[in-house]
Amino acid sequence: MRLLFVCAFLNEQGGFETEVEGRARLALDAGHDVALFTPHIVRRDATIRANLSPVVSLMSAQEIWRRTAVGRGMLLAARLRHFAATGRRASAAEEGGLAKSRIPHSFYAHFWQGEGRQVLSRFDMVHLFGKPKTFVVAGGRQAKAMGKKVIYEEVAEVTAEYAAQPEHQSFVSASNLCDCVVAYCMQQVTDIRRYFRYDGEAVIVEQWAYGDEERLLRLRVRERGATGDYVTLGSLCRLGAEKGLDTLLVGFAEARKEVGNLRLRIAGQGALEEALRKQARELAVAEFVDFVGYVPDKVDFYASIDVFLITSREEGGPITGVEAMASGLPIVSTPVGAMPERLKDEVDGLFFPVDSVEGLSSAIVRLSRDPVLRRSLGLAARRRYRLRNHSGLCTARMLAVWESLGRT
Q: Do 52 and 27 form a contact (C-beta atoms < 8 A)?
């Protein structure tokens, strides 16, 4: 089967790209032909390009526009203006920006009725990856009009505000054109039906620890700290406002007032890094907080911490939640996304309310003082992972969706 993944973007290093890469590799391993399509060029330095370009075709509307006579002319003019202004050629990132800024809106608006039809004609099935932006939804509409099977997979937490965003509104009228919707948890299915008015088939395919599962499951579940006398807390996410990292720093600072042997490792990149560093200095905990940036080997990161923290205000998953479960780490989390269906409070993990400094600091203090509890929660989380998130279970569900629609 020829399978086209249509994605809103692929240029970051977050959970969305991890999810797309995991699905693409699964489809390849099952013997399907796979291609990825986005509105904009996937940068040469993007992780997903380095990981997948040898085996998967990465296409974009922007590349198609650049091959047109108008596109070539406008891009050449933009390059000349850049050289005149800076005295040098545009870098790879600047080149993408030059092209992106010159594409007329009408090209994207009508892409799937023109050049996009030729792209779609080469595939049997189209798998749309949320968020349901206008370009992605329009691709699904055209695919359906051409008789293709269409799957939509939501990766975010769906709320009334999320569905009301102008760029997501087109999915309200198009949702029931999909042959199937894939979600992470039952709450996500309920919200998609409620806010996007979807009433068709929905399948829950949970996340698993793509690519790292075997190594994570082999990590030793510890009672004593990973870094000597310190209890090391860890967070791994994009450094954005929705991740609640400002609450994390305040909660950590409050916990340190009661327990002095705490350290915090924050992994990830994002727009708020400098603001978070400044906040750590203002809270007088900067020397105990390590901003480690992008982590090329997540297994090593999980092995370096004793407690994993999820402080998000909104989430679809997150993927780091299941990775931490497989690692056998005790998890402290807000009740966002799929986490309440993954873990039971006080059994497999500890939950605290969104933005509750008191709730977070209390959980940190409790775990830092009780190594037996840390170990028991970590073991329980790993058992839970094996029962509901293991690749053997989740990949079978995703493959069944593709194969069922492919047969019909």
A: no
Q: How far apart are CA 183 and CA 5, in angstroms?
A: 16
Let me know if 374 is exposed, middle or buried by CB neighbors in 10 A (0-12, 13-18, 19+).
buried
Instruction: Look at residues 41, 87, 48 and name the one whose alpha carbon lies nearest to residue 64.
Output: 41
Q: What angle do CA 298, 304, 305 make, to 5 degrees?
A: 100
Is-cis flag, bond preceding 131, omega within 30? yes
Whether 216 and 327 have beta carbons less than 8 Å apart is answered as yes
Residue type, 246: D
Contact 221, 334 (CB under 8 A): no
Tokens of residue 361, six digits: 């600091």
pLDDT at 304 over 80: yes
Q: Count of CB atoms within 10 A of residue 69's CB?
A: 7
Spacing of C-alpha 141 from chain mean position: 24
Q: E strand or H helix at 244, and its extent? A: none
DSSP string of 36-57, one letter each residue: EEESSPPPTT-HHHHHHTTTSE
What SS3 state is found at 105? helix
Instruction: Report whether 6 contacts 125 (CB < 8 A).
Output: no
Summarised one tens digit per residue, pLDDT across range 236-283 is 999 999 999 999 999 999 999 999 999 999 999 999 999 999 999 999
In the 3-class helix/strand/coil scheme, how is 183-228 assigned residue by residue?
ECCHHHHHHHHHHHCCCCCEEECCCCCCCCHHHHHCCCCCCCCCEC
Half-sphere exposure of 259 (CA within 13 A, CB side): 22
pTM (two decimals): 0.89
Q: Is 12 helix (H, G, I), strand (E, B) or coil?
A: coil
Q: What are the CB-based long-range contacts (under 8 Å, 24+) for 61-69?
A: 61/37, 61/103, 61/107, 61/108, 61/111, 61/115, 61/116, 61/135, 62/96, 62/99, 62/100, 62/103, 64/111, 64/115, 64/119, 65/99, 65/103, 65/107, 66/99
Residue whose tokens read 């370096």:
304
Instruction: Report the distance separating Cα 208 and Cα 159, nearest Å.
Output: 24
